[in-house]
Amino acid sequence: MLRQIPILTLAATLAVSSVFAAQEVTTPPVGFITLTVKGTTANAGNDALSVLGLGMVNPVEFQGQVSSVTGSTLNFTGTPLTGLTYGPAYYVEVVQTGSSLEGAAVDIVSNTASTIVLAQPLTLAANESIVVRKHQTVTDVFGADTTLKLGTTDAVVVFDASTQSSTFYNYSTRSKTWSGGSGVIGPDEGVLVISKTAADASIKLVGSVRTNRASLSVFQGLNVIGNPFPAEIPIASINLEKTTADNFGIFDSATQSMSFYNYSSRSGVWTVPVGAPTAVPVGGAIFLTRANAAYAWTQVAPF
Fold first, then answer.
1. Residue 6 confidence (pLDDT)
2. Which of 25, 87, 107, 218 is a Cys-bridge partner for 119, taking CB atoms 3.0 to 4.6 Å apart?
3. Coil, strand or helix at 238
4. Nearest to 164 by CA among 17, 288, 25, 28
5. CA neighbor of 89 nearest in space, from 50, 135, 55
6. Is the separation of the CB atoms in 249 and 261 below 8 Å?
7. 3-state SS string over 15-49?
8. What's the CA gap between 181 and 189, in Å, rounded?
9. How far apart are alpha carbons 63 and 66 in whole angstroms?
10. Are the beta carbons of 225 and 294 closer than 8 angstroms?
11. Are the CB atoms for 118 and 72 separated by under 8 Å?
12. Given its phi and psi angles, is residue 78 left (phi above 0), alpha (psi -120 to 50 degrees) or beta?
């Protein structure tokens, strides 16, 4: 399930007109990235931590232009959703270039042949373009049989910043399933893997490349936010709110160490410590500590 800030709050963080002409949504490119889970050898035989960002999204299941909005319901001309069934395993993402809500993602509750009901209102203008994607899950990423990718004692952790709580997923060799519920990983969520296995593991993540702007929810408190693109995000161009009250860190799984970044009001940039990464890596994530109210971190594709 998506960790959602109120859409009105998201829109208020942006100052862009919300009236647009019709736009055709093109098929995004597909590809893969390789996620590396470090084994205990990287941490002198102790449990090793890896912090991952998925970087890819599932393919588009439906794309269309909204004719109107009624509360939490998106209306479409005709019956373009005939034969399609969507629920909480899917979400709507706004892909209208230049929209104040471009990149915003909201869970789906249900649909009819001509409507999509959302978990919260999404105020769009007529002819704005959306897509429907299926959520990624722990099973999708790490496998229905984890022994093909991770050790049986390794744990996957998804942190929900909206509730400041973690869900732990462990694989049962007896039931051949992952514990922890539905296992949904939101498009803005980073994933932690705690490895008790000596060897590193490589995970090939195949998917579609996000080419539109990303809109990532930032909540008061701790946030673990994955890089949503299959490319590095340079620290110099990271579009986090510029405030000395916040700071973020990048965890280097290879050295099992964290680098912290603070905003300098004097220089007007995020300071990069000596020897620290100068970009959020592909397949990486940031730990962000937010002092003030929630907002949407909007980030254009770095390519």
1. 54
2. 107
3. coil
4. 288
5. 135
6. yes
7. CCCCCCCCCCCCCCCEEEEEEEECCHHHHCCCCEE
8. 16
9. 10
10. no
11. yes
12. left
